[in-house]
Automatic annotation (TrEMBL):
<dbReference type="GO" id="GO:0005829">
    <property type="term" value="C:cytosol"/>
</dbReference>
<keyword id="KW-0597">Phosphoprotein</keyword>
<feature type="DNA-binding region" description="OmpR/PhoB-type">
    <location>
        <begin position="130"/>
        <end position="227"/>
    </location>
</feature>
<feature type="modified residue" description="4-aspartylphosphate">
    <location>
        <position position="56"/>
    </location>
</feature>
<dbReference type="InterPro" id="IPR016032">
    <property type="entry name" value="Sig_transdc_resp-reg_C-effctor"/>
</dbReference>
<dbReference type="GO" id="GO:0006355">
    <property type="term" value="P:regulation of DNA-templated transcription"/>
</dbReference>
<feature type="domain" description="OmpR/PhoB-type">
    <location>
        <begin position="130"/>
        <end position="227"/>
    </location>
</feature>
<dbReference type="GO" id="GO:0000156">
    <property type="term" value="F:phosphorelay response regulator activity"/>
</dbReference>
<feature type="domain" description="Response regulatory">
    <location>
        <begin position="7"/>
        <end position="122"/>
    </location>
</feature>
<keyword id="KW-0805">Transcription regulation</keyword>
<dbReference type="InterPro" id="IPR011006">
    <property type="entry name" value="CheY-like_superfamily"/>
</dbReference>
<dbReference type="InterPro" id="IPR036388">
    <property type="entry name" value="WH-like_DNA-bd_sf"/>
</dbReference>
<dbReference type="InterPro" id="IPR039420">
    <property type="entry name" value="WalR-like"/>
</dbReference>
<keyword id="KW-0804">Transcription</keyword>
<dbReference type="Pfam" id="PF00486">
    <property type="entry name" value="Trans_reg_C"/>
</dbReference>
<dbReference type="Pfam" id="PF00072">
    <property type="entry name" value="Response_reg"/>
</dbReference>
<protein>
    <submittedName>
        <fullName>Response regulator transcription factor</fullName>
    </submittedName>
</protein>
Length: 229
């Protein structure tokens, strides 16, 4: 296992599972905090942002989907969220991603896989880079809105910039077309193709000045970013 040490917050109402996860993370030298309900877990995540949040769905008070959605609205940084749940249908998985989850693991699970996924998520969103997402030579400052590629400032209109941020936060996962539309406009999406013109503008600014395209269309599914190095 990696010698990297991370801070993990587990929001889980099962005492037995909390005990098991405490032993797992502490065995490998990681720091771990716990909350047994959604409301206190959300407050702890906002007050002391962890490197990774392991989030159960079936929580008392506020369920995991609402915790994740509120975290995305209120946090001043991107906190990687791994949803851990017994709900294993495709619809359940999509609901988790639409709420803002970065990864999804169903119970029962292999502890080594859980640990590996947490480490992967922590590397993608370093705590030292509080508001900066970095993918290859692309950097996005969530607070200032500044976007740079290969050190070059990229000027974007509001909607193309929001599309880029959604894709960057989901990276390396593909966002479906419907998922992206829902995140941008909710239930008030334009009647015509709402993404076409904005994706064109994003490609013109993000990819045209460079040799390698980062914005990829996954035919029949949606869109994703591809690192350029």
């Amino acid at each position: 296992m990696s010698t990297e040490r991370i801070q993990v917050l587990v929001i889980e109402d099962s005492h037995a599972l909390r005990t098991s996860l405490a032993a797992l993370f502490e065995h490998y030298g990681h720091r771990v905090d716990f909350a047994a309900d959604g409301r206190s877990g959300l407050a702890l995540a906002l007050a002391q942002p962890p490197d990774v949040l392991v989030l159960d769905l079936g929580l008392p008070g506020i369920d995991g989907l609402r915790v994740c959605a509120q975290l995305r609205q209120r946090a001043d940084r991107h906190i990687p969220v791994l949803m851990l749940t017994a709900r294993d249908t495709v619809d359940d998985t999509l609901s988790g991603f639409e709420a803002g989850a970065d990864d999804y693991l169903t119970k029962p699970f292999d502890e080594r896989e859980l640990l590996a996924r947490c480490l992967a998520l922590s590397r993608r969103h370093r705590v030292g880079e509080v508001c900066v997402l970095q993918i290859g030579t692309l950097s996005i400052d969530r607070r200032s809105g500044e976007v740079r590629r290969q050190g070059q400032l990229i000027e974007l209109q509001q909607t193309p910039q929001r599309i880029l941020l959604e894709l960057a936060e989901a990276w390396p996962r593909t966002l479906t077309r419907s998922e992206l539309i829902q995140r941008l406009w909710g239930d008030e999406a334009p009647m015509s193709d709402p993404l076409r013109s904005h994706l064109y503008l994003l490609r013109q600014a993000l990819d045209k000045p460079f040799q390698r395209a980062m914005l990829k269309t996954v035919h029949g599914i949606g869109f994703r970013l591809e690192a350029d190095e």
